[in-house]
Description:
Elements: H1 10-15, E1 23-26, E2 30-34, E3 42-48, H2 55-61, H3 64-81, E4 88-91, E5 107-111
The protein binds adenosine monophosphate (AMP).
The site of adenosine monophosphate has 13 residues, from loops.
Amino acid sequence: MTYRYDSENIFAKILRGEIPNDTVLETEHSLAFRDIQPQAPQHVLVIPKGAYVTFDHFAQEASDAEIVDYVRAVGEVCRMEGVADDGWRLISNAGEAAIQEVPHLHVHVLAGRPLGRMLSK
Ligand code: AMP
């Protein structure tokens, strides 16, 4: 799979500072901000600053430093949001079947209510 990154996607615009975001955490290689249409009381998106479309793209092409930073940023967000006690979910949609709306890698950190089964069907 060859990935083509669309630098006009909305998260690229957020990273360039062209549109605002509600930042939760910024690190050298990653940014976490609140989802504009939260699906749970806590709904944070964590993105790498690099131009990666999906988790697979990131895993193939990101540097070790970017990957370590990103994984640690997700963990840090979970700790900052205090999600561990009641449970939480990490989702990353990729491509058409998963209805990925924004073609820049992001994981959703969801918490704050019972989240139901992983998939509805
Ligand atoms: P996905 O379907 O996994 O690609 O999810 C994209 C997510 O980005 C959705 O949950 C949207 O609500 C969220 N989103 C879109 N635009 C923005 C924005 N400007 N700021 C924060 N979240 C956004």
